[in-house]
Amino acid sequence: MLTLLLILGAIVLARRPSEVVKKTTDERQRLTTRRESPFSELVTLEQTGRKIEDPNLAQRRNLLVTKLEGVYQELAALDEQRAL
């Protein structure tokens, strides 16, 4: 009987409120959407850079990589929160 109560208590206490799950899911979707634009720009830039040499491409590439790093850091922090 005690074992059953402990198992049920663990299940009840381990569940997260649906608001929290929805909020983190929405935030993850927002970050994923935010990541797509700079990523596609970076792919296009890399393809263009192979065809022509332009010193501005390196600067633009660094800017896009920095943006992507920020988004990936936010995604990692969100995943870390979800794991707790």
Gyration radius from CA atoms, angstroms: 21 Å
Low-confidence stretches: none
β-strand percent reads: under 5%
Our count of helices gives 3
Distance between the termini: 29 Å
> Helix/strand-derived class?
mainly alpha
Largest sheet: number of strands, sense, barrel closure: none
Q: Rough shape? A: rod-shaped
Residue share in helix: over 70%
Query: How would you state the average pLDDT, rounded?
Result: 84
Order of helices and strands: HHH
Give the helix/strand layout:
Elements: H1 2-14, H2 18-51, H3 55-83
Helix pairs in contact: 2-3
Molecular structure report:
With 84 residues, the chain is mainly alpha-helical. The chain has one domain (18-83). 90% of the residues lie in helices and 0% in strands. The chain is built from 3 helices and no strands. Helix 2 packs antiparallel against helix 3. The longest helix has 34 residues, at 18-51. The protein is rod-shaped and about 75 Å long. The model has no long low-confidence stretch (mean pLDDT 84).
Short summary:
This protein has 84 residues and is an all-alpha fold.
Q: How would you describe this structure in keywords?
A:
single chain; 84 residues; mainly alpha
